[in-house]
Amino acid sequence: AQASTLFRRNYCKMDDKIALDAAKSAAAQAAVDQWVTEDTKVVGVGSGSTIVFAVERLAERVWKEGALADMICVPSSYQARKLILDHNLTLGDLDRNPKIDVYIDGADEVDSHMVLIKGGGGCLMQEKIVASCAKTVIIIADYTKKSLRLGEQWCKGIPIEIAPMAHVPVKLKIEALFGGEASLRIALKKAGPIVTDNGNFLLDWKFLAKREYNWDEVNRAISMIPGVLETGLFVDMASKCYFGMADGSVKTQN
Ligand code: 5RP
């Protein structure tokens, strides 16, 4: 009986993953096909599991369809850089390509005003830097990321990148200013704090889901705390979001 329960549990999880992957792939394909054209010279590449489908689609366009010959891809993380190289796409950087035509990335949660929580994978700082250099920021996500209010979906909180020496004072200041609880992100098996691509630590701030926050103000106030390097709150950055739905369709939000 125990074996069959385990089998059923794993089978369901596998089913969920297949459905979510199909939704991510549909969103990624729709966004790439709409936003990356022969006129697109520089594409910013986000991080996470959804962006993998976007890079696969870009590679298909280049290598199977013979399109996008001049496209340069600027990565937002070590993972994105590796994805670009693994797919034999042209790797750029902000020194040579500081003006990006379109930045495509996933998100952990998107509210009805297009405020995003990002940084579930810990890449928020480089993601925000690359996104800030783009004319257009396009978000791709599966249907579980769509919310009316932040906090509906994402129970792990808002990621905040901090200087390692400041993690205790920053935590205390955020909690005093806005309530909730900010915890240092710890590696699996308690192997110590997670270290970002930039050599920093992360706090995950579980805000008070029932409180009304002005996210622009919260973002500015947290960014001003000494030791805070970047927040995972992306306010007024995204132009359009593509959500892959459970039925295979893609819904957009502006
Ligand atoms: C990484 C990110 C990701 O874009 C975000 O976590 C979404 O990831 P996924 O596509 O795996 O759901 O911000 O720092």
Automatic annotation (TrEMBL):
Its EC number is 5.3.1.6. One of its GO terms (biological process) is D-ribose metabolic process. GO terms for molecular function: ribose-5-phosphate isomerase activity. It catalyses: aldehydo-D-ribose 5-phosphate = D-ribulose 5-phosphate. GO terms for cellular component: cytoplasm. Keywords: Isomerase. InterPro entries: NagB/RpiA_transferase-like, Ribose5P_isomerase_type_A. It comes from the Eukaryota. Pathway: Carbohydrate degradation; pentose phosphate pathway; D-ribose 5-phosphate from D-ribulose 5-phosphate (non-oxidative stage): step 1/1. Belongs to the ribose 5-phosphate isomerase family. NCBIfam families: PRK00702.1, rpiA. PANTHER family: RIBOSE-5-PHOSPHATE ISOMERASE. This is ribose-5-phosphate isomerase. The lineage of its organism: Eukaryota, Metazoa, Ecdysozoa, Arthropoda, Hexapoda.
